[in-house]
Amino acid sequence: MDERPVLVTGSTGYVGGRLVPRLLEAGHRVRAVGRSMEKLRCRPWAGHSRLELAQADVLDSESLKQAVSGCRAVFYLVHSMVAAGKDYASKDRQAAQNMAQACAAGGGERIIYLGGLGDDDDGLSDHLRSRTEVGRILGSGPVPATFLRAAMILGSGSASFELLRYLAERLPLMVAPRWVRTEVQPIAIRNVLGYLIGCLDNEATAGRVLDIGGPDVVNYAELFQMFAQEAGLPRRIIIPVPVFTPRLSSYWIHLVTPVPASIARPLAEGLKNRVVAKDESIRKLIPQELLSCRMAIRLSLEKVRQQAVETCWTDAGELLPPEWPYCDDAPYGGGAVCEFSQRTVLQASPNEVWEYIRRIGGETGWYYGQVLWRIRGAMDRLVGGVGLRRGRRHPHDIRVGDALDFWRVLRVEEGRRLILLAEMKLPGEAALEFQLVPLPGGRTELRQMGRFLPRGLCGLLYWYSLLPMHNSLYAGMAKALARAMDKPILEGPVRFHPTESLACDLPKK
Asked: What angle do CA 262, 264, 269 make, to 5 degrees?
């Protein structure tokens, strides 16, 4: 086997996060690339002996050239829709151009790209047109590119599966757009991974555009009914109407599912396009057992029930955190940081307290003021934010980059520290930190620290208007945490000013 590494971009995303360990299992050397080294280091496969970690940004051509250098092949699995919003098409165009140039300069032999199905005509959605354009750009250079075109990917944690799951579970009666009758050819995530890995050593796939799909061609209404049957739900009543525009569909998806409107809209626009494989020659080039839609849904639901979702669509996205959440001093070069800090001494060890801190959010909730948290999540959702509905990937495992309700995990130090950055709609930037300080006699000081970098007068008014609520919420959370642990509070909760930080440093780049 060729000992040169295989580069995987998007290695902390939904597909890339599953591809890396499977490449390692197959005996390949892998160079996993991401914008955040801390996010890469927290992946369960990060310590593998055949794995290299590299920091690079596809929009930074120089860092990309360094990452590609010496690699025999590149898996291109990045998409700017989550990070760039409306500007995703131009970002993806620039990123693809950078990758084509980097591969040409770095001596790579193959590019393998996973994009979307769809005929490039006037009726194609902007989202699918952008995915097709990326494939053309990657294939325009001297390095042969394989363009795998997939429709809907069915797998626990995928955006497509989460859309299907939430809509089917929450809406027994659907007044739906006409796209519910559009034909689609879904493919299971395990079959997608099988094709990606199979292309690596199959020269017959080089320089080709290949459609990948499962064995079933269905419409979305049939998928909803199939999901309902597998989930043990009554048959869904679906009434197609002609008045739903993609914009209205995206708002409805935003309100009912965890997918925010900024992502839902381009996805909804693509639902009008029939996405069925025209050329299925890849089935002969890379034979594998293709899972039916029903089996893919069944296996995905089983993963959800077992709380064994390997990666989630929320894993993707930029994690280049600001500097200010990492220092306890309120003054900061970028502006005045407002803070509210509270300390509580518990008759419990740091490890005992950590077991409850690490479960915060999702199904566990926030231990206190659950109604207030839900109201805040609903308000955020109404103004286009992510809300609480994203939940968390796993009920107790937590790692850097995870989405946690309307927060993003910035730092995890086991038994010691957790820092969250708010992704809700705010007139500024907010961070929430939990610190655990060991004390003699098996005691622990729990520090809860909220920090806010306001944006103008609105930001200051927002912060000071919520200070009384912070006081009640933090104290209630500490007391409820102690009750959940069945451990006594020895001191506090009381306010304090954090003059010393456990680690007043910046994230490792």
From this structure: 110
Residue with tokens 């992510």: 386
Q: What's the gap between Cα 462 and its chain centre?
A: 28
Helix boundaries (H) for 107-219: 126-139, 159-170, 189-200
3-state helix, strand and coil shares in percent for the chain, rounded to the nearest 5: 40, 20, 40
pLDDT in tens, 117-173: 877 666 777 878 888 889 999 998 899 999 999 989 999 888 888 888 888 888 898
Q: What are the structure tokens assigned to 308, written together? A: 């064994």
Residue 503 is predicted with a pLDDT of 41
Statement: residue 356 has pLDDT above 80:
yes
Strands (E), 347-483: 403-404, 407-413, 417-422, 428-439, 443-454
DSSP three-state, residue 429: strand
Residue 303 has pLDDT above 50, yes or no: yes
Sign of CA dihedral 34, 39, 40, 43: negative
Residue 125 backbone dihedrals phi, psi, to 5 degrees? -65, 155
3-state secondary structure of 234: coil
CA distance 138 to 1: 26
The Cα 3–Cα 50 span in angstroms is 10
Write the DSSP assignment of 290-354 as a string of letters. PPPHHHHHHHHHHHHHTT-----GGG-S-----SGGG---SEETTEEPEEEEEEEEESS-HHHHH
Evaluate the omega torsion of the peptide bond into residue 493 and state whether it is cis, within 30 degrees of 0.
yes
